[in-house]
């Protein structure tokens, strides 16, 4: 409450002074007037603004539900949830709005890395701590308290190492291997990191060839559409690597439609990322051969960071979530205890 009264007084001064000490920039006035309209949040709650990417995948739904289950009123929080609707410009505007609403903390899951510098500067100027979660931003790290998420490059390396081991075990170490890569959203740190990790390992094998890499924006529908196009252009595919499970599920539909035999015992090796519960069912059936886990349960770490900041404690700048690799050989022993 005290912050709100201080801002009202500041706004009064701003408006009062505007007449005598020259023109205040329109932009500053707009932002300050935003604040005057800011809702008054009940001091007994910690108000957390959370800007989500959208609803592009099942992973995203699990990630969103984790925030909704964590930042509840009976746990002492008022959550202001904003769906970015897969539109980065909408996300940035929402961040300005949350600063203007004078929330206590802002958590951002950025669709893409770029375009965040100005609004993070604004949040810092207004002393509202920002936590970046899941995907990253290219902005100066001094503009946010910490980043929590997965090591996407390592995820890509883990996938390529599994492929290497599998081919060795199958006696195909020196065979020419043709790879199709379905990439996530262009500019998204999850796609950037996985592609970097995969490409670096693939380049170490002169007999591994990327036939084509196509963006399918992490969605099942685009995964199917893109794979249909690829199958029309390429018949000599040995491996399909999808940068998330949902695009792989769509690609599987396209391969089935084309009469291709994929998965364990088939002609096409299938590899993806996220390790959703649906992926475990696919691995148990042998349709999916490996899924590199990307843990969506991030809200609990974000809450710990907020509690540390509330107590005036320092927080680590980079906080990785724990994750593993699951395959068609070990899926059955894990499937019953998956949380998402
Ligand atoms: C990764 C996350 C990615 C998932 C996709 O942390 O950003 O976005 O891998 C999701 O399923 O859409």
Task: Describe this structure as you would to a colleague.
- This protein has 340 residues and is α/β, with parallel strands linked by helices.
- It has two domains: 38-150 and 296-322, Response regulator (Rossmann fold, 3-Layer(aba) Sandwich), CATH 3.40.50; 152-294, Rossmann fold.
- The protein is built from twelve helices and twelve strands.
- The strands form two sheets. Strands 2-1-3-4-5-11 form a six-stranded parallel sheet, with helices on both faces.
- Strand 1 (46-52), helix 3 (58-70) and strand 2 form a beta-alpha-beta unit.
- It is elongated, with a radius of gyration of 23 Å.
- The structure holds beta-D-galactofuranose.
- Beta-D-galactofuranose binds next to helix 3 and strand 9.
Key terms:
340 residues; alpha/beta; Rossmann fold; 2 domains; 6-stranded mixed beta sheet; disordered N terminus; binds beta-D-galactofuranose
In short:
This protein is of the alpha/beta class and 340 residues long.
Tell me the layout of helices and strands.
Layout: H1 2-20, H2 26-36, E1 46-52, H3 58-70, E2 77-83, H4 88-100, E3 105-108, H5 117-125, E4 130-133, E5 146-149, H6 152-169, E6 177-183, H7 189-202, E7 208-215, H8 220-233, E8 239-242, H9 245-257, E9 269-274, H10 277-284, E10 290-293, H11 299-310, E11 318-320, E12 325-327, H12 331-334
Helix pairs in contact: 1-2, 2-4, 4-5, 6-7, 8-9
The structure holds beta-D-galactofuranose.
